[in-house]
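pinned: reference chain
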Amino acid sequence: MIPLRDNIRSRRRPWMTYLLIGVNTAVFLYQMSLSQGALNELLRTYAVIPMRIGGPLALLFPDRWPHLITLFSAMFLHGSWFHYGGNMLYLWIFGDNVEGSMGGMRYLLFYLLTGAAGNLAHVTMNAYSPVPTIGASGAIAGILGAYLLMFPHARVMALVPLGIFFTVAEIPAVVFLLVWFLLQLISGLTPMGAQAVAWWAHIGGFVAGAVMVFWFRQNSRPGPRSERELEIFGEDHGDRPWR
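pinned: its structure tokens
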């Protein structure tokens, strides 16, 4: 399933989501400008290479500490236009509402920590792998885990495959996100599938987001909206139109 939009309007302009998309875009375009040799060197330096870290116990070994920074740097690198575009689509659709419920700086910290948690989950399940791993998928999965718990009654408009054709359907967010997570889990438990995609980064990021959301969400609702906010976002009704 490919999400197209949801029916929840953010209560704030999602400036941090815009910034994250901008940074990811700038880094990806920079990657595309490099020669193959320079790109390989970039990946050797900033991608997660599990065998260099070895799992959560890396904190006990000072010689591995420098490699821990890749748990964060790798989430700003992408391997292809499809990889980059898919992650940014999910960030665009689901990130604004999560940011609106946390505030910009909390949301940024949440994004970084869930992304690192996802990468660490991948390292734990592939501790001896020399294959570089990149992508924002762990952080995006963290956003999905938070969205599931904060907006369980939302609806997602999505492209749904029917054989070789696609149809557009309105799907409850709970169904969409739980199906997404189940597919990641099944793929992660399939040996052949685990070789191609860092499924455990998705799984770890999602679980981390679902747990950490309780510490990062703001408990108090924002005050009454200004006339300008109402002009931009509309009235705050429970059942909002598609955005």
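why pinned: DSSP finds eleven helices and three strands in the chain. The radius of gyration is 19 Å.
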